[in-house]
Protein 1
Amino acid sequence: MKSYFPIKKTNKLSKQMLIQPMFVDQRIKSSKKIKGLGENYSWPQSTILKAVEKDLKKGLRNFLFFIVPKEKQKLPEDFSFHYEVIRSLKTQFKKDLTLLIDTCLCSITPDGHCGISHNKKINLPETHYALGLAANTYLEAGADIIAPSDMMKDTTKYLRKIFNENNFNAAQIMSYSTKFKSGFYGPFREAANSTPKGYDRSSYQLPVNDRSKAIQSSIINAAQGANYLMVKPGITSIDLIQEIKAETLLPTGAYQVSGEFASLKLLDSQGLGKYRDLLMESLNVFSRAKADYIITYGARDIVSHL
Ligand code: PBG
């Protein structure tokens, strides 16, 4: 099976390892800057192809899409907007584009949680069922990699099972396998319309102070059939990457999340640092820590420098 992000042999930063997040939002008619994230916008469906084309010309290839539908759904089952977006991207750009789709329910559920909940408690079977419908739809539309970020127990296992049942045996899963509950997700949640209401995400995201739980979470996802693992936020997980790789022998990447990235931009805007230098420095550290790929909102700003 083709590996889009193989285990790296050197610590050198390269453009092949960069993944650019992208937001498509059904609620908007023209592009909208995302607060704190520099040249990152939410795009309406009508201009997303143009935006991607521009990035491809810069030398980017890998994109992680967050698709935000207009309507919230209590029991999510309609992923037709997602389907249309993915289909049009793959029809237009084919293999020039490696298309990763963030697979979660937080932009759809009325309470902004990553699963379906009743009385502040996640219902796991309902959640898995909806995630499975979503992921199947994305694969049918042409997604290259399914990236479940919900962090519910056994999601990777469930997805692998239904992919096998639906003749998607070769489907690739990038699991957000070690994902902490974090204060660094702020700018993202505005763009994804996914700020949690009623209770926080600590029942399904990891506590930052428990190293063995954090490593175990990636090991479990590897055993359940993930092809790629991830630590997130990058800055609070740098020390975990090597051990996860040693335990699982799987490629493991780092997600420089919205709040981390925004902090670089803020330093720059206050005249306290230079954005491009700060970005390079932080990405080189992920690389030194042996991240095999890096998801960063700054990918388009540095790709031509690599
Ligand atoms: C949730 C999800 C989150 C991010 C990616 N997927 C936020 C969360 O868990 O609340 C954060 C990414 C970022 O901050 O850049 N599905």
Protein 2
Amino acid sequence: LPVLAIVGRPNVGKSALVNRILGRREAVVEDKPGVTRDRVAYKAEWNGRRFTLVDTGGWEPDAAGINAAVAAQAEVAIDLADVVLFVVDSNVGATATDEHVVKLLRRAKRPVFLAANKVDDVRQEPAASALWSLGLGEPYPVSALHGRGVADLLDLVMEKMPEVSAVAKQEVGGPRRVAILGRPNVGKSSLLNKAAGEERVVVNELAGTTRDPVDEQIELGGRVWTFVDTAGIRKRVHLQQGADFYASLRTSAALEKAEVAVVVFDVTEPISTQDLRIVDLVLESGRALVLAFNKWDMLDDDRRRYLEREIEQDLAHVTWAPRVNISARTGRHLEKLVPALELALDSWDTRIPTGKFNAFLAELTAAHPHPVRGGKQPRILFGTQAATRPPTFVLFTTGFLDPGYRRFVQRRLREIYGFEGTPIVVNMRVRE
Ligand code: GDP
């Protein structure tokens, strides 16, 4: 989906605007600074068009960190968003931080809209007009809290939003899009450099591909791949505070642009919650997944035994993801990355014909009927695959299926069809 990013200083009303756009009343608005929110990307819809809303303000720095943090947010937005909505508090006016961000935003070749927030009634509109001085064009007076002006602004924003996302474009061919993810120092940029070698493609010559300056096209295993947000991988951002938030912002935004993610681990260190959080972001995004265990050249037998145990425990929920054990330094097994990516993407694209899927369901329910609960036994009437990327199934049932039974259906689907490297989704529709 195309991405709209919301950028602005702390307390200008970014979360209120996010809520307003998502059509919620309460939720994430806090007037307290210093609050970290986990969520970064939201599915949103306006006038029947869907897009991803990225809230860059989930982490609010204290006074000392404001410039660096807001600049980092702006940078992510510039690199990874299709349209940027820059929010200013019209009661405060343009601050030095705002002006700094504007300088960054003007370098972006992205449409930028200036929202002059907290214009709760018409008498405050002159304050919004004063923001012409920022040089970002027309300031749009809005009240995120009361909704005033937001709809009109969003109509304009949607006009600038690309019709189809980068991912949807893949349906008509072109290189497949890979995100290299992982916490700092696991070896992402080493991997990228080693993989690219001398083979970096002169990209303008590839007809019909969307080319983004933050992405890079690399030939691997005889075909060209787009590695998304390589700019983000190469950048070394040193933030005093909020580094984790910045990292997950980049991860979430890069996932929006990718079809498959390679999550890189450093085998010399224990698998951490940060590693697992990145895997979770991939699962939430519904992208295909490959696990790369890097620095294999440094692995001794002791550590290796621990690693196997950690993988068993911490990554039990993604045993279906292909694993490659590599060394970005020596080049060990890098050639195994391509078949792993291809396998994951094939699974991600898989469509099971309705007839076959129902034969599968009939066999499964005959051998293992749903347990009787409260005198009732929900039955699966039929099913269909509603979507690919990732494979998404709908079961039409006579009652709610136990979560355990749904997991069982998922397990059987994997046993029969593999689906290596892709999450699968099983939804239910209960027929009364
Ligand atoms: P990034 O932050 O994930 O991009 O990590 P870098 O690619 O910058 O790597 C971090 C450090 O790990 C650097 O000192 C690399 O030289 C080192 N490194 C990366 N891959 C390997 C590897 O396969 N083996 C060894 N021994 N060191 C590696």
